[in-house]
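Submission checklist for the structure archive. All mandatory fields must be present; incomplete records are returned to the submitter.

[x] Identifier: Dipeptide epimerase
[x] Organism: Kaistia nematophila
[x] Residue count: 327
[x] Sequence attached
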Amino acid sequence: MTFPFSVEVESWPIAGSFVISRGARTEAHVVVVTLGDGQATGRGECVPYARYGETIDGVVGSIRTALDGFSAPPDREALRAAMPPGAARNAVDCALWDLEAKTSGVPVSARLGLTAPRALVTAYTLSLGTPDSMEEAARIAAHRPLLKVKLGGDGDRERIAAVRRGAPESRIIVDANEAWSPENFDANMGACVAAGVELIEQPLPAGGDELLRHADRPVPVCADESLHVADDLGRLAGSYDAINIKLDKTGGLTEALHLRAAAETHGFALMVGCMVGTSLAMAPAVLLAQDAAFVDLDGPLLLARDRSPGLVYEGSLVSPPAPALWG
């Protein structure tokens, strides 16, 4: 006999559309896991991602199969052994952290040694578009201190310059989502230097990024699609300057903490990012990101509405989660 749990699929409308080099979306489809132990319940949210071969049905099935194998909520190390990294394990792992906090009365922040977690400045994402449309989007968002600019490969020099014209005072990071090539790498890098860009996320395809080992990198380069778990770090050394930790890639907060510690040992700068989801998905990442060089947890800001209660955003400043939400 298994313990009580539920797995629900939710759809949240995106404000407008969210466009990257791989396509556009108007909704965020998330999976929410709720676990019980007879005293309390805990929740976790994940976002299945087709880039990694994940589907909603596949993630839901994986979660149900894994949890049906336990007669009580598993400990988090048993979960790591039972499920591979990815979105499915993330939802369960974060639900376990929340359940443990609710049952014990000890917040996750305290268990992580964060006596007073602070509000963080998050990047705000500008979708891929024409230079003119991106300049206008940058102008509208120019009051935000940190912008993350989605790029698409050819034409990115013009896009980068346009965003800088639209937001002359904002700090800028860019994310190519694997869309650059060896042929346009140097020109696009030069455009980033000219615009004062501070970080370039995943310019080249994962598995096709050997050029980075030998290329000039006047702007630091951050691994996203090339990085999932701590075991990936060894092959990235010398090619990347930073890594983007996302809970949906690592398979939860437990693995993300291992990855963060290992990355610091290897000397990588840290970014904590997200898929487009609700505050429930962002909440554990806010705690993980307390010492990160770059924070990209704007998922709820891109939605037409968020769950309630949600995280508190004051402009681009996101506060740690309240217990009613998570942890």
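[x] Structure attached
Curator remark: The chain is about 30% helix and 20% strand. The two ends are 27 Å apart (CA to CA).
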